[in-house]
Write a structure and sequence with these properties.
Rossmann fold, alpha/beta, binds iron/sulfur cluster
């Protein structure tokens, strides 16, 4: 059984000593230079609100919903304070939100009970936009608001549920997460092919639930708890060596956050980065010609915030790609997506991406290990791939 990511005991906001280390790492503070939009400022607001010194206002909501939940503050705080958890908890108590945040709250609370319908709606909207006469103008507008999203024709879960390896050494489940399941099913297929080549049988449970990260981010802790319980029930019914996911946000949610919410996690949940890197030898044996593919171009490896700040699973794949001859430039600047943040704080989100856009656009390719970063890059016309597609190519030679 693959080891679980241990939940570290973290301290409460009331322990904060205002040192400002978190502020220096906060991408939103760096962008706005405003204390109340930075990590330390948000801690001060949370303390004041909890102590009854601040009332619930739209301004408070604006400050708390302008956080990416990137985790840079959690990782840097010398007192090990769980800032992001406190932010999510307080978000759930706020009533005076702006219209956009209210709308998104309802959509996530009720719509994500059945994510399939949400993505069907997105698919229908996409189809309409593709068939209107002013398609190009509309495309630009959709990109600006992060709404240029084209779902896969069939979700991963509806495409495949079992895939056997030739000489099986074990069985793992693939948890796709909503982005891979509904938007990038082909990435899920790549993962299955790679895992099969590593001699693992694959199972994908037909019963699919969102991991609960959007609900947790909006402060719907009860809903997130319910999802955690259902999810554990689904995976407990299989005998598995691991549960592998391509999305670091899902891995963080199903390990650390489930532990906080209900004291249990998905047994064996692991980031695909880490799982595949464990079998490096198998990949290196057959990946000779990967380097010839991108020699003329600079390739950037974009490190996702959730990999770096929450689950510490990030360096394995860039090291692996480098070791097979890929000239890789490592970059861990936040892409600006942030899930719900992208839709609530569209302007800020675009500003963050614009910081890296020129550099990233000039590179031949951006490789990353998070499907959500890819949504953001594609909305900004940045050529990007999930590492799993590169590994699949390498393995096939
Ligand atoms: S780093 Fe920790 S202790 Fe320092 S200001 Fe931020 S939350 Fe407070
Ligand atoms: S999670 Fe990221 S954006 Fe939010 S306060 Fe912490 S460092 Fe800033």
């Amino acid at each position: 059984m693959v080891g679980l990511i241990k939940h570290k005991v973290r301290r409460h906001p009331s322990d904060c000593v205002n040192c400002g280390v978190c502020k220096a790492r906060c991408p939103i503070y760096k962008e706005t230079s405003k204390e109340s939009y930075g990590a330390r400022g948000r801690m001060a607001l949370i303390k004041a609100f909890s102590d009854g010194e601040l009332i619930d206002t739209k301004q408070l909501s604006e400050r708390l919903f302008s956080c990416l939940l990137c985790g840079a503050c959690n990782k840097s705080c010398p007192l090990n304070i769980d800032l992001t958890r406190s932010i999510c908890e307080i978000r759930g108590l706020l009533k005076h939100k702006d219209k956009k945040t209210h709308l998104l709250s309802y959509l996530i609370k009720y719509g994500f009970r059945n994510p399939k319908n949400i993505f069907k709606g997105i698919g229908f909207f996409d189809y309409l936009c593709q068939h209107l006469p002013f398609k190009e103008k509309l495309d630009n507008l959709r990109r600006r608001y992060g709404l240029k999203i084209t779902p896969s024709k069939t979700s991963l879960v509806d495409t495949i549920t079992l895939s056997k390896a030739k000489e099986s050494i074990g069985r793992v489940a693939v948890y796709p997460g909503c982005s891979v399941n509904y938007l990038f099913a082909s990435m899920g297929i790549s993962l299955i092919e790679v895992l099969n080549q590593l001699n693992y049988d694959i199972v994908i449970p037909r019963k699919y639930f969102c991991c609960g990260a959007p609900q947790f981010a909006m402060g719907f802790l009860k809903e997130a708890e319910n999802i955690a319980r259902k999810q554990i029930e689904v995976f407990q019914s299989f005998s598995l060596d691991a549960v592998v996911s391509l999305c670091p946000t899902c891995v963080h949610m199903m390990s650390d956050v489930y532990e906080i919410l209900i004291g249990e996690t998905i047994q064996g949940i692991i980031d695909a980065n880490r799982f595949i890197a464990k079998h490096t030898k198998n990949i290196l044996d057959i990946s000779d010609n990967i380097s010839s593919l991108y020699t003329d171009n600079m390739v950037i490896y974009h490190q996702p915030c959730h990999s770096k700040n929450y689950i510490n699973a990030g360096n394995e794949i860039p090291s692996l790609l480098k070791s097979v001859g890929l000239h890789l430039h490592y970059d861990d600047t936040c892409c600006g997506f942030g899930g719900t943040f992208r839709f609530i704080q569209t302007g800020l989100s675009n500003m963050l991406t614009s910081r890296i856009k020129q550099r990233y656009s000039q590179s031949g390719l951006v490789i990353t290990s998070c499907p959500n970063c890819i949504i953001q890059f594609r909305n900004h016309n940045i050529n990007s791939k999930h590492f799993i597609d590169i590994i699949k190519y390498a393995m096939k030679g």
